[in-house]
Design a protein that fits this description.
Length: about 300
């Protein structure tokens, strides 16, 4: 905690308390670079690309893939590309509300808005007649889905809902997030450690308002896990977690493992990955990708594509 406080104080000193960042047009949030799902949503959402499925199409599983805080649909591009030869299921890539657009849009979004984007696509698919809808979530979307489970969102699903969580975050690796409520209004924003290439797909500047929203949802779900979350009988949950995650403390997986039980009291499936990456399934634009990283990604993709039929 002392180290986190020192970092924030230093940031305040060097940033001079500038409340709004100077954003160039060529990075996400600058006003010209937008997530492609915003202008071609039918290429990303099954509810729009095939709104009137045949009886056979309605039985084919749809995997709703949802990204993490400050990210975009880019986070699931590799899974989508890997799945192109898979005729047995479809992928619907959801952009969380406020993401992928301007800094101002991001700044005013709440975690409830982010969650609603996921719920909306699920509800639309149900309304259109799709029978088998599953989820592949990364980072903060995992947290949002855990809250949806806790709230009873899936209690009345007619078929099994498979939910796969990639590097879920409950406890951040950077403990300074717990201080954002105190120092956030003075800071205005924080700057992420992105590569130049990643700046087109991940926000470089993160508004303190959204960091407070992130802290709120993490605290909410942590308390829900402490109270205990019971899976409906129709929900299957599996967690995949990097052992050395620089963003989501690996203890997050322990909290989920201890806090979530099946309807008959059994433990959920947890798979620890020999990885130093956060969201280990996204390898594009990362420097120094190893053979182990590629194997981890392939194994996760294969496991997800197989388990939705179990």
């Amino acid at each position: 905690m002392k180290k986190a406080l020192a970092i924030i104080i230093m940031f305040l000193f060097f940033a001079g308390c500038q409340k709004s960042p100077n954003i160039s047009a060529d990075i996400l949030g600058g006003g010209q670079v937008f997530d492609p799902s915003l202008y071609n949503p039918q290429n990303f959402l099954v509810s729009l690309s095939n709104p009137n499925p045949t009886a056979e199409e309605a039985q084919k599983p749809v995997i709703i893939a949802c990204h993490g805080y400050s990210a975009t649909t880019f986070e699931w591009d590799e899974f989508n590309d890997w799945s192109q030869d898979q005729s047995k299921y479809s992928i619907s890539r959801v952009l969380l509300a406020g993401h992928g657009s301007t800094y101002a849009d991001f700044e005013k979004s709440t975690w409830h808005d982010w969650q609603l984007s996921i719920a909306d696509e699920y509800n639309k698919l149900i309304e259109e007649g799709y029978k088998n809808i599953d989820f592949a979530a990364s980072s903060t979307s995992c947290t949002l889905l855990l809250d949806m489970i806790h709230s009873g969102f899936f209690n009345h699903a007619n078929t099994t809902v498979h939910i796969f969580l990639i590097d879920p975050i409950i406890i951040p690796s950077d403990k300074s997030l717990s201080l954002i409520g105190v120092f956030g209004p003075m800071l205005g924003y924080l700057k992420a450690d992105n590569t130049t290439a990643e700046n087109k797909y991940y926000y470089l500047f993160r508004p303190q308002e959204t960091l407070q929203q992130l802290e709120q949802v993490l605290n909410t779900v942590r308390h829900e896990l402490e109270d205990g979350i019971v899976l409906p009988n129709n929900v299957y949950l599996k967690v995949y977690k990097s052992k050395q995650d620089p963003t989501a403390d690996p203890v997050s997986a322990v909290l989920i493992y201890n806090g979530v039980k099946t309807g008959n009291g059994n433990r959920i499936d947890i798979q620890l990955e020999d990885s130093k990456l956060h969201v280990f399934t996204r390898l594009r634009l990362r420097p120094n990708v190893t053979a182990q990283d590629k194997a981890n990604q392939l194994n996760a993709f294969t496991d997800i594509a197989t388990r939705i039929f179990n």
